[in-house]
């Protein structure tokens, strides 16, 4: 199943994102369940959140992935939304 993981960073947390980015990208590569991903940008063009589409067995697997993401472990996110997503175009 496909699951969309949408996050919003805590205010002023860009440095946490930058410091943890390599570990986050390595986690994506290691786990092999990310179909597409990228950061949300604020009005200044700075990263301020993420959208990640996972291809996992169920919502529990998506939650486990999100909990183990280095960004989450570093305390980057103000909020996280996890929802089943249906690909229609693309």
Write the layout of secondary structure elements.
Elements: E1 2-9, H1 14-31, E2 34-41, E3 47-55, H2 59-68, H3 70-73, E4 77-84
Antiparallel strand pairs: 1-3, 1-4, 2-3
Q: What keywords describe this structure?
A:
90 residues; four-stranded antiparallel beta sheet; single chain; alpha+beta; 36% helix; 3 helices; Alpha-Beta Plaits
Give a brief rundown of this model.
Helix content is 36%, strand content 37%. The longest helix is centred in the first third of the chain and has 18 residues, at 14-31. The protein has 90 residues and is α+β, with helices and mostly antiparallel strands.
Q: Describe it for me?
A:
By secondary structure, the protein is α+β, with helices and mostly antiparallel strands. It has a single domain (2-84), classed as Dimeric alpha+beta barrel (Alpha-Beta Plaits). 36% of the residues lie in helices and 37% in strands. It has 3 helices and 4 strands; from the N terminus they run E-H-E-E-H-H-E. The protein has helices at residues 14-31, 59-68, 70-73; strands at 2-9, 34-41, 47-55, 77-84. It has a 4-stranded antiparallel beta sheet, with helices on one face. The mean pLDDT is 97.
Shape: globular
Strand order of the largest sheet: 2-3-1-4
What is the CATH class?
Answer: Alpha Beta
How much strand content do the residues show? 35-45%
CATH fold name? Alpha-Beta Plaits
Order of helices and strands: EHEEHHE
Low-confidence stretches: none
How far apart lie the N and C ends?
Answer: 16 Å
